[in-house]
Design brief:
By secondary structure, the chain is an alpha/beta fold. It has a single domain (6-266), classed as Rossmann fold (3-Layer(aba) Sandwich), CATH 3.40.50.1360. The chain has helices at residues 17-39, 51-60, 66-69, 93-100, 121-135, 193-197, 212-220, and strands at 6-14, 42-46, 75-79, 81-83, 112-113, 148-151, 176-181, 186-191, 202-206, 239-245, 260-266. Bound molecules: 6-phosphogluconic acid (6PG). 6-phosphogluconic acid is lined by residues 47-51, 80-81, 93, 152-154, 158-161. Residues 47-51, 80-81, 93, 152-154, 158-161 line the site of 6-phosphogluconic acid.
Length: 267
């Protein structure tokens, strides 16, 4: 399915990060439920960073409803990107997810598709590409279609590990690529943006006043994906969802009575 010319953007604005986390937990459960109802399985790719952590903790909390509504048995969990560090390193996205979620929920090892950040970047990327091909049973040039991809956005407009002015922005044939990030003096591995855009549903979780200006640029400013890689995210479905807190949404058009805002972009 190729992306169309028009992108419909819907953003939920929550009063604070805790409310954002609750809305995100609800969104994970709803989207997972829809996928399982339709296909009997659900494949989700998650990002790291700090914003999603609170949502993962809510999904894992036995005192919260989402822990009991998530179809864990039918879930295959993947990552959007990973740092080139071992899985027990403080910087590891996997470690954050294990502590916030995986240690508390009933996922079997074969349901957890970890990016092997402990390996050399190119090897880790190639192995994850194979993992995607095998677990999605891809043939030829087929691309994996995730049911849901959860993204964050950095203050520099990056998403996944697609950082401004880095090589991965231009990678359109691989499913997974290693990406050197000079600004951080590091390497990452990341799903490529065509894979992210092929997902049935893509949503951003963004919080904090520091993201307000860049978010406004990404959503309403001129197209400049080299400088604003989050603009590469243009789901083939033609729909992009964001769950924001009030601080991050401060410079966006006002929301309706239900706390939802709407924007449209043309290619
Ligand atoms: C990572 C993430 C990255 C993250 C943004 C936002 O590996 O760090 O995949 O893309 O989503 O940097 O991070 P915060 O949620 O911490 O602001």
């Amino acid at each position: 399915m190729r992306a169309g010319r028009q992108l419909k953007i819907k953003y939920y604005v929550e009063p604070d990060p805790a409310a954002l986390a609750r809305r995100a937990a609800q969104y994970f459960v709803e989207m997972a439920g829809e996928a399982v109802a339709g296909r009997g399985r659900v494949r989700i790719a998650i990002s790291g960073g700090s914003t999603p952590k609170a949502a993962f903790e809510l999904l894992a909390d036995p005192d919260q409803p989402w822990r009991w509504r998530m179809p864990w048995e039918q879930l295959d969990l993947y990552w959007v990107d990973e740092r080139i560090v071992p899985p027990d390193h403080p910087e590891s996205n996997y470690r954050m997810t294990r502590e916030a979620l995986l240690d508390q929920v009933p996922l079997r090892p074969e349901q957890i598709h970890r990016m092997e950040g402990e390996l050399a970047p190119e090897i880790a990327a190639a192995r994850y590409e194979s993992e995607l091909r095998n677990s999605f049973h891809l043939e030829g040039a087929e691309s994996p279609r995730f049911d849901l991809v959860a993204l964050g956005m950095g203050e520099d407009g990056h998403t996944a590990s697609l950082f401004p002015h880095t090589q991965a922005i231009h990678e359109m044939s691989r499913l997974v690529t290693a990406n050197q990030v000079p600004r951080k003096d590091t390497w990452r591995i990341t799903l490529t943006w065509p894979v992210i855009n092929h997902a049935s549903s893509v949503f951003f979780l963004i919080a904090g006043v520091d993201k307000a200006a860049i978010l406004k640029e990404v959503l309403t400013g001129p197209r400049d994906p080299e400088r604003l890689p989050s603009q590469l995210i243009w789901p083939a479905s033609g729909i992009l969802t964001l769950i924001l807190d009030k601080a991050a949404a401060a410079l966006l058009p006002a929301t309706d009575g239900e706390g939802c805002g709407f924007l449209e972009r043309e290619r």
